[in-house]
Structures are given as C-alpha cells and as structure tokens.
Amino acid sequence: MLDLYTAATPNGHKVSIALEELGLSYTLKVLDLTAGEQKTPAFLAINPNGRIPAIVDHEADDFAVFESGACLIYLAEKTGRLMPADAKGRSRVLQWLMFQMGGIGPMMGQANVFFRYFPEKIPAVIDRYQGESKRLFRVLDGQLKDHEFLAGDYSIADIANWAWVRTHRWSGVEMDDLPHLRRWRDAIRARPAVQRGIDQPPSKVDLTRDGDAGAQKFAEEARRMVETGQSLKPGGGAA
Hints:
CATH architecture of the largest domain: Up-down Bundle
Pfam families: GST_C (PF00043), GST_N_2 (PF13409)
Number of helices: 9
Order of helices and strands: EHEHEEHHHHHHH
InterPro entries: Glutathione-S-Trfase_C-like, Glutathione-S-Trfase_C_sf, Glutathione_S-Trfase, Glutathione_S-Trfase_N, GST_C, Thioredoxin-like_sf
Keywords: Transferase
GO molecular function, one term: transferase activity
Domain GST N-terminal: 1-83
Strand order of the largest sheet: 2-1-3-4
C-alpha cells in the first residue's frame, strides 16, 4: 500500500495516472496548497522541499519519494512496467522524462505565472515563456510524427509530458498546427486509467479550457500565492 500526497496539478496527476495504470493500491492524501498544508512539519518530513507530489511506500519500510519524476521512476522500477529494463530502452524513456522535467514543466509553469497569475502583465516575459513552450511542443510533435509514443511503448515519459500538454490552453499556447501532438494527446486521454488518474483528485477548475467563473476564482487564489511569495505552478504549486 502506498500513500500519495498530492493536489490537482499536472505534476500531481502524473503520479496518480501512473498508479492507476499500474493498478497499485494507494491512499489519496490531498493537500490544500492555498492553506499551506505542504509546508507543515509533518509533510516536510516526507518532502523537505515542501511541494507535491510525494509518495510513501508502506511495503518498503515507509520509504518516501518526492519529486514527480522520481516518483514515476520508482513506481516503474518497483513494478517492472511503463519503462523498459534494457539500458537503451530505459535511457530513451528517461530522456523524454527529463525533457518534461527540465523543459515542458518549467516553461509552461512560468507561462502560467506570468500569463495568468502575476499582477503585472509583462508582454515580453509572457511571449518568452509561451514561445519556448510552443517550441518544445514542436519537438514533441516531430518525435510523434513517426512514433506512436515518445520512447517506444507507452511509458512514464508519455504520462509526464501528457499531464502538462493537456493544459496548454491555460498557458496560452495553442497546438492546432501540431497534428501528431494532438493525435497523441487524444489517444492518451482515452485510456481508462488516465481518465481515473486525472480525477485523483479532481481539479476545481478545468485547466484544459478557458473563461469560466471557476477559472477566474482559481486565478485569483493563485495570484495571492504569487504576491505572498509562495512557489507556484498550475493547479497551485507542485514539484
């Protein structure tokens, strides 16, 4: 049995999707990021960085894992699934996982902050992060032109990148001109385990679309977090 400490963010949903895909039993422990529950001493003992997601594996002497990418690798290696065992196959998956961790996530996260949350709109900064996010989308589209999935079979690399790409409209980045990326996005969205995973927990606002009252309220809450100096990514703050 595992505990998943999480919230409704792309990084949080990476791990819940993986858990659902792997069919592992877990207890969902949802943290209220706006209330600062991720900064309590109890949670900092699990993740010193004070961000979600994190997992605790009770079958392995209550072993704690933080950082979403590290959680995905741990779960894949624990089960022998969603990542090849051979060195080259494993490396291909890890390359595309690191692509998300070092590129897609940070760039879209900053696009969200400056496009949605930051009190002052700075066009040059918004253009910078949206433009770099779109460039990275083109890289994904190019890879997917000749591949069904990013690194061979469906893997944690697809889960990690998809959890962010699905929220592209929240970042103000369109993908109508990227047919291979759209095909991949829709195919993964149709997987039953993915559908279950993005409801663990369900988001208060649909980050895949724009313009409703819930989105406005969420953006206001996120703006207050920015103004008070709390670390933030879409959905409220994740690692």
